[in-house]
Amino acid sequence: MTDTYELFQKGRTQLRSGMTAQATVSLEKAKRREPRSRSIREALGIAYFRLGRWEEAEAELRALVELSPADAERLELKAGDTVQVAQNGSSVHAKVIIRERLSEGVCFLIEGTAEANANALLNGAPVSVEIQKVES
């Protein structure tokens, strides 16, 4: 097992045991080693939420969209850009993550928060979406 995985598992165990403050220490260390890990960020977001650290929780649980390098290049996007992901009149804003393993033409949208819930785009099946950069 890797050190990062051990830290993640330790944090999850601490979280389940009600040791939330201790869990944040383990999970923050794991996140520093693997900042793109959805699992680590989700667990850390839950820990922050339980501690009432709302802004930090929201940052960890914010909607993220994963794109292939080819799609990111075609759309002129870079990691961290904010985009609008839309389908049939519904949309959410999400931060871009570029993943080598994704096929061109496919995106993966992580559920996100109540204000930016990816489920609003679904009808229980995969759908076609439009992705557009949000200008700041």
Summarize the topology:
Blueprint lengths: L2 H14 L3 H14 L4 H13 L3 H8 L2 E4 L1 H6 L7 E6 L2 E9 L8 E3 L20 E4 L3
Task: Provide a brief overview of the structure.
The protein is an alpha+beta fold.
Structural account:
The protein is 40% helix and 19% strand. It has 5 helices and 5 strands, in the order H-H-H-H-E-H-E-E-E-E. The mean pLDDT is 83. The protein has helices at 3-16, 20-33, 38-50, 54-61, 69-74, and strands spanning 64-67, 82-87, 90-98, 107-109, 130-133. The longest helix is centred in the first third of the chain and has 14 residues, at 3-16. It has 136 residues and is of the alpha+beta class. Helix 1 packs antiparallel against helix 2 (20-33), helix 1 runs parallel beside helix 3 and helix 2 (20-33) packs antiparallel against helix 3. The protein has 2 domains: 3-61, Alpha Horseshoe (Serine Threonine Protein Phosphatase 5, Tetratricopeptide repeat); 64-133, Beta Barrel (Barwin-like endoglucanases), CATH 2.40.40. The chain has a 5-stranded mixed sheet with strand order 4-1-3-2-5. 26% of the residues are buried. A hairpin with a 2-residue loop joins strand 2 (82-87) and strand 3.
